Amino acid sequence: MRLGLAGTGRIGARHAEILHRIDEVDSLVLADADVARARGVAAGLDAEFTEDTEELFGRGIDGLVVAAATDAHPKLILRAVEAGIPVFCEKPVAKDVAGTIEVLDRIRGTGVEVQVGFQRRFDAGYAAAREAVGSGAVGRVHTLRATTLDPAPPPAEYIPRSGGLFRDCGVHDYDIIRWVTGREIVEAYALGTNRGAEFFAEAGDVDTGAAVLTLDDDTLALTSAGRYNGAGYDVRLEVLGSRGSIAAGLDDRLPMRSAEPGVSWPPGPAHPGFLERFHPAYVRELETFVDVVAGRAASPCTVSDALEAFYVAEACELSRHQRRPVRLAELR
């Protein structure tokens, strides 16, 4: 199998390393707007590289992995689908809801698979939580608590093009809540604050956010996201039910210490970032994409799934600005 990869930044380079180790992938062709960067990553993996992403489509690739800047995602997805090439694209599909809907409309009925990169669906803990809900082991779910806290902010130049905290960071929680529960989110009430670097406020963003989400069966989900969790990278989902509870991310590397005397758990060290925390999930995610390219599987995370999570993020952003609950039906 011959795969193309567009974008060799931090996540793209990690994807290239993973794909290089998958036996069924015979060769990789890399491209990046920064040609020198693509050349460097390719050299380290004994892979090929091209001088621009368009050239990827003339290299006989069987599948395309998109890890380029967000603005390039729609064009690359559509170019690949038009050529009949299955695509894996890191979230988001596009920078806004309208762009995501346009991509969805144009790929509908083509029969070409598009897989969107929500890697938490491939994490063992989140998968176990989904199984516990689906089997009825936790009983009737009444509350979920989802957390995504970065140990330090991303670079200042990233924030204006990130889409904001709810679209960039919280969207992973919204997707995984849908996936674990099998329910739809129908309303959001969100707040955000800035007590850190000025570049967040200058970009119209916040460095800390929280939302109360209502699911279609009246289950409540409480979500929090932040850029200044100095203890380490903290990503969890707690599912509380009438019979029991279960949590993903509650492991020995949880960046939290108990205030109770004599309690030394968790011992640490804390997860330093998302690449380390979710490395096994990234591997399973790309192995699944290889199955998609080979025709052995359908996309496990579609553009429609990405759109639903994006609707929730949009509702949170509108709620933050207007200080009111926002029904997702308002945005459809």
Low-pLDDT runs of 5+ residues are: none
Give me the CATH superfamily of the largest domain. Dihydrodipicolinate Reductase, domain 2
Q: What is the CATH level 1 assignment of the largest domain?
A: Alpha Beta
What fraction of the residues are assigned to beta strands by DSSP?
A: 15-25%
Rough outline? globular
CATH architecture of the largest domain: 2-Layer Sandwich
Task: Return the average pLDDT rounded to an integer.
Answer: 97
Q: Write the element-wise H/E pattern from the N-terminal end onward.
A: EHEHEEHEHEHEHEHEEEEHHHE
Distance between the terminal alpha carbons, to the nearest Å? 39 Å
CATH fold assignment of the largest domain: Dihydrodipicolinate Reductase, domain 2
Assembly level: single chain
Largest sheet: 7 strands, mixed
| Count of individual domains | 2
Compute the number of strand runs.
Answer: 13
What does this structure look like?
With 332 residues, this protein is of the alpha/beta class. It folds into two domains: 111 residues, Rossmann fold (3-Layer(aba) Sandwich); 175 residues, 2-Layer Sandwich (Dihydrodipicolinate Reductase, domain 2). Helices cover 35% and strands 21% of the residues. The chain contains ten helices and 13 strands. A seven-stranded mixed sheet has the order 12-11-7-10-9-8-13. Helix 3 links the parallel strand 4 and strand 5. Helix 4 packs antiparallel against helix 10, helix 5 crosses helix 6 and helix 6 packs across helix 10. The two termini are 39 Å apart.
